[in-house]
Design goal:
Helix content: 40-55%
Bound molecules: tricarbonodiimidic diamide
Number of strands: 13
Strand content: 15-25%
Structural class: alpha/beta
Number of helices: 13
Distance between the termini: 39 Å
Shape: globular
Length: 314
């Protein structure tokens, strides 16, 4: 009964006159939908969301404490269901605008994915393959924190995230001989490195860094090339999920990020690259890699930064 008392006394749950309109049970809908026509104010949407949440809580309390009073909740259920079912799609289908170059990048959250390229231990961690080749990994590690914040906001908003990893099968059957010998390095892909066999799937160095580790529901694309579309099912996954636009982050700016953005562009995707979320071992390539994307009216895509994307997400 405490739940019932709380439910009745909660100001946010007091039904308005409109909510008390009779329920048309033959059609299983409230006879007047307050969101009909999409003309209700933003404030009324939020009011309904909060009332819906309180309603669910109250329902749980009522069921655990006094199962005999369901009829008290029943009149609210159509409003609760209507609010939740209306507002979630509305939020996912609204158009957001990110301040970017060469001009604003617009996207509907439901149709835009965050694509994080190759944030792997071998490229970013001290002692990995990247550092073994003489590269300064601190140039890449600067992108970790901005990526972490963007990923957190993206997940909180319920938007889609996809990760990629560059690497090969343990038997090297998908490693082109030209890639194996390129660089004339003493140690190359498939050899034993500081974090297991270099760029081989399943080895510690091939894994994604702890800070950006994928959630179980987030697809991880294992790619044998620099571009994320080559010899992978990325395009099919994006098509199946209705994705038209990508926010592309990761490493390195001029190699795998640029190649992927170009591949995506040719397949009809709009790409936004936040400059603080991508990294290159070479500062001049970082600068030019971004300039090449946004030049000529956005020949390959748009460039912005994580704070401007976070502002757009609200
Ligand atoms: N992910 C990626 O960019 N792979 C590379 O090999 N990058 C270099 O910059 N070498």
């Amino acid at each position: 009964m405490v739940g019932l008392y709380w439910f009745r006394g909660c100001k946010g749950l007091q039904p308005s006159k409109r909510d008390r309109r009779p329920v048309d049970r033959s059609q299983n809908v409230v006879s007047s939908n307050p969101f009909q026509g999409g003309m209700a104010s933003v404030r009324s949407h939020f009011s309904f969301v909060f009332r819906a949440l309180y309603g669910f809580l109250a329902l749980i309390m009522l069921q655990t404490e006094d199962p005999g009073v369901d009829h008290v909740v029943a009149p609210y259920l159509p409003s609760i269901t209507s609010a939740v079912c209306t507002i979630l799609p509305m939020r996912m289908n609204r158009t957001l605008s990110v301040d970017a170059e060469p001009y604003e990048f617009e996207f509907e959250p439901a149709h835009c994915a965050l694509l994080i390229i190759d944030m792997q231990r071998d490229f970013l961690e001290p002692g990995g393959f990247g550092e073994m080749l003489g590269n300064d990994v601190s140039q890449l590690r600067r992108a970790i924190d901005p990526n972490r914040k963007l990923l957190s906001a993206w997940r909180s908003a319920g938007l889609q995230v996809i990760h990629t990893r560059e690497g090969h099968r343990p038997d090297l059957s998908d490693l082109p001989p030209a890639k194996k010998i390129r660089g004339r390095s003493e140690t190359s892909i498939g050899d034993e490195g500081p974090m297991g066999r270099i760029l081989i799937r399943g080895e510690p160095g091939h894994d994604i860094i702890r800070e950006l580790y994928p959630l179980p529901a987030e697809p991880v694309i294992d790619k044998p090339g620099k571009g994320a579309f080559f010899a992978t099912d990325l395009h099919a996954i994006l098509q199946n999920r209705g994705i038209q636009k990508l926010v592309v982050t990761g490493v390195t700016t001029e190699v795998c990020v640029n190649t992927t953005v170009r591949e995506a562009n040719d397949r009809g995707y709009d790409c936004l690259v936040p400059e603080d979320c991508v990294g290159s071992y070479f500062p001049e390539f970082q600068e030019m890699g971004l300039k090449m994307i946004k030049a000529q009216g956005g020949i390959f895509g748009w460039v912005s930064d994580s704070s401007r994307i976070l502002s757009a997400l609200g």
